[in-house]
Amino acid sequence: MQALVQLKPFLIERLPLMSADKCHPLIVNGTQKDGYIDYTARILILDYRGDPIEVIMLIRSWLESKNLHLDPAGKDIQLSFNSEIIDSDTFDLEIDFPQRDKVIFSENEYHVCPPLVWSDVKGGFFPAGE
Questions:
Q1: 1, 2, 77, 101: which sits with the fewest CB atoms below 10 Å from its CB?
Q2: Do the beta carbons of residue 70 and residue 77 sit within 8 Å?
Q3: Would you say 77 and 38 are in contact if contact means Cβ atoms under 8 Å apart?
Q4: pLDDT computed for residue 21 by the predictor
């Protein structure tokens, strides 16, 4: 969940028609089982006056850049979306995608273990999302 904090500033920086007060990252439908927290990340964008497909493409690009675009089986995750069409130039967007965090619980604390991914550039494994 922590890696998703970076998504809002990324979108605002790259989409000049988006304002910070109209972009809301949410976590919905979370579950915890067998050492994993599975959840849906939802990006709610209100009164957007740009191209909604561009927003979806940017989210996909950001997920790939952070190595957060694969499911536990190593396949691309699905981005789902809903949109209210307000007029020909204005949309409310709701974009959902699944995420999973490995969490180790002890009696009084927990530790999130990000999945490790290989980087040829860095020459080794590093936590996904960085």
A1: 2
A2: yes
A3: no
A4: 95
Token pair 């952070």 is at which residue?
66
**Cα dist from 25 to 75, 107, 117, 122, whole Å:** 24, 30, 25, 30
CATH number at residue 58: 3.30.980
Which of helix, strand or coil describes residue 28? strand
Number of domains in the chain: 1
SS3 category, 90: strand
Tokens 């999945």 belong to residue? 115
pTM as predicted: 0.82
User: CA–CA separation, 99 vs 27, rounded Å?
Assistant: 10
Question: What's phi and psi for 62, nearest 5 deg?
Answer: -65, -45
Each residue's pLDDT tens digit, 60-115: 999 999 889 988 888 999 999 999 999 988 999 999 999 998 888 788 888 777 66
What residue numbers bound the domain in which 123 lies? 2-127
